[in-house]
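User: Can you predict the 3D structure for this chain?
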Amino acid sequence: MKSGQESASYSAWEVCSDELFKVFGYYMWIEGNMYNLTSISDFLLLDFSNIRGLQILHFFVFLVLFLITTIGNLLIIIAILTDYQLHSPMYFFLFCLALVDLGSVSVIIPKSMAMSLMNDRSISYSGCITQVFFSFFFGTSDFVLLNIMAHDRHVAICNPLHYERIMNKAACVKMLAIGLIISLIHATLHTISTFVNTFCSNNVNQFFCEVPQLLKLSCSDLYLIEVGLVVLSLIIALGCFIFIIITYVQIVAAVLKIPSVHGQKKALSTCVPHLTVVSLLFITAMFSYARPLSDISSSLDLSFAVMYSIIPPMSNPFIYSIRNKEIKNALKKVLYMKLIPAKPSLR
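Assistant: Here is the predicted structure, written as structure tokens:
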């Protein structure tokens, strides 16, 4: 009788032990997976192709785009610095825009080129954070500068008698400083709200660390914070875009009142390039950030990303120089001084 009771108690203990081991094992499995999710040390970016020859082709294509963008913006910077006639508020902000464009392409293109050349898709966790932060910082600065430049053109054409008083040096520096502070805060908020998330995977479906693609990897509901910030940013950007459109409607109305046809063309020549740049940046960015987080083809994602991250910075120098005689004359002086050496002194 006693042995039967001992056998029954042993069986109950054995069943209980098995259940405890199962629970403990399940707990350890959860802990292990959570450790893997939160200990991502790097991300794997999307390569343009798995074929080595196409990777080398991508490297050279991006190298050409990077050189065109860099040389174009550097020429704008040098022309404005060396020509005293271009030391005005409009060209001061154009100078700042060229610097921002140089920064924006330097954040994305060199890493993508190195990825194709070295056949290495990895980017460190800190490197991904850096890309997100500076992408938002330079992108926001770009849009802020375009809004300030629209205000500058509005004052110059609609209120020319008070232009020097309104757009004085102190006012320009103050507007630039406020714009940079806004860009810094905006970039910081987006970076923090993106990387507080727990990521289920490290495979980013983009050739750089783009926020919409990173949010697709989130394992928690914290990604909704960043989604809310993106929606708020888009609403603000749309409001700024509408402000620019209204500003240019007022500018066109003022230009049409100018009796001289030559005066009308001169006024519009400084407005058309700016409106072109604004439209190009806003429309291409909307393609990537205004879409829902759905499974869209990689080719479309890549196309949208290239359109808003590379094309505007590359196009800006050409858009502003082709229709601007002052910039073209300054560039001619720079190139003339570089190509033709100074004559030796007769002394």
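The CA atoms of residues 248 and 275 lie 8 Å apart. Strands lie at 42-44, 122-124.
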